[in-house]
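Pilot study result, target chain (247 residues):
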Amino acid sequence: MLAYALELKQAGIIRHIGLSSHNPEVALAAVESGHIEVLMFSVNPCYDLQPASEDVEDLWRDEAYAAMDPQRQKLYEVCQAKGVGITVMKAFGGGDLLDASLSPAGKALTANQCIHYALTRPAVSCVLAGAHSVEQLRQSAAYEDAGEADRDYAAALASFPNISWKGHCMYCSHCAPCPKKLDVASITKFLNLAVAQGQVPETVREHYGVLEHHAGECVACGACEKRCPFEVSIIENMKRAKAIFGV
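Predicted structure:
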């Protein structure tokens, strides 16, 4: 299939190649091949905890919802590092995340929270929101006019009774404001991208370099850690970022 697509691209019949997948291992292999430019992938707070296994028993083990699946995290970070855009499907988990009785988390999220969660993942470009009715479509479109409080998913995720993101940065910016004006969420994202690659990609170095303030300016006051709903070791992350990026 790929050979045929590449043949069509070389002939000028098509100009771009993309892939749709629900499996992080398959998607990661495609992204690392260097042949695709866009990935349609299922992204939401509960899917992000599921292992790549397609065994139903594996998907519903309690342990499967204990922490962020490392394959999915790596997928998002590699996509960002390689410039492969992600278009999101299943942002609402087929509607299950909007209903507390159906959500694996044991608590409902709003459409705004689900959309905002997806849009704040590395490399995500847009959310393809499904709808059964015009009213549901209006609810999704209302995200564009929603305020920060309506979009905020951090408090909801931190209070989920069945699953936990403890220790994992969700790039939600609840750690702000920093007295030294560090953009902690962006610094952490670039740190994670570098760690995922095992090196510092030039694009990541450039993006980090143009930040107004860098990790080396952190004074370890701890104000950010007191505000983080996920108990992330932010001070340690800033130390690691300074060591990796040099400033």
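One observation from the pilot: The chain has a mean pLDDT of 90. A full batch analysis is planned for the follow-on phase.
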